[in-house]
Amino acid sequence: MGTNRSVRFEPWGVEVSTSEAETVLELAKRGDIGIEALCGGAGVCGTCTVRVEEGSENLSSISEAERSVLDENVLEDGQRLGCEASIQEGDVAVFVPPKSRIEQGVIMTAGRSMEFQRQPAARRYPLQLDTPTLEDTLGDRERILAGLASEYDLSVTEVDRLGLRSLPKRIREASSRDTLHLTPIVFRGRELLTVFPGQQENIYGIALDVGTTTLACYLADLVTGEICATTSQLNPQSSHGGDIISRVEYA
Predict the structure, then answer these.
(1) pTM listed for this prediction
(2) Averaged pLDDT for residues 222-236
(3) CB atoms < 10 A from the CB of 69, how many?
(4) To 10 degrees, what angle do helices 140-152 and 161-174 make?
(5) Confidence (pLDDT) at 105
(6) Hey, what CATH class is 127-197 in?
(7) pLDDT one-digit tens code per residue, 172-191
(8) What is the C-alpha to C-alpha distance for residues 130 and 175, in angstroms, rounded to an integer?
(9) Nearest residue to 218 (alpha-carbon basis) of 210, 203, 206, 226
(10) Which of these, 42, 38, 3, 39, lies nearest to 23 by C-alpha position?
(11) What is the C-alpha to C-alpha distance for residues 93 and 207, in angstroms, rounded to an integer?
(12) Domain coordinates of the chain in residue numbers?
């Protein structure tokens, strides 16, 4: 087992410990410190540059990659590549300059609304069905599929497994003396996803925008098309490279 060692990241004052010879960039990732690494830590882009404030003798020697990327005067100023400098022993303090930081920034999640023809993949189909009787013993699944075929001319051939397991409970919740009020949700007119008791007015869907830099999530009313809520954040994969190839290589 290696001896305990640590790196303190300024200006945040966050300290990350390790018992192995990890790089400054690896420790920054473990400490949720946002340091740019557009090349994914390959030692060629120079975006993960940090300045060593204390304990430079506890870091690995300057590598050939660092000499090819950083000028000699920069190295003499105590600056190192976070992806190349690894902590060998003791404690180290580094300052992450603004140009090397991954800042949260402002992510746009709102835009201009416009009219469009809504064609959601999942739709609601309210039904009123007869309740089962001793004379009418049709199964729950078959009863709903028959109702969808009769009322909406849908030929549903698949039923989601989780939805199928919940059918008996949902149907019992929806039953009155002689009528079942149900709202099946059907995907692309072929697959029964689930069934809600009663007449369900709204169903909701989530749209995810996965970008190289940012992630955005939208909660949408699939009936009206209204965007009900939004949230966003920087793509956490950014710390593993600024492009898809670098991230695939990391994985």
Answers:
(1) 0.59
(2) 86
(3) 20
(4) 80
(5) 57
(6) alpha beta
(7) 777 766 788 899 999 999 99
(8) 9
(9) 206
(10) 42
(11) 42
(12) 5-100, 105-121+200-236, 127-197
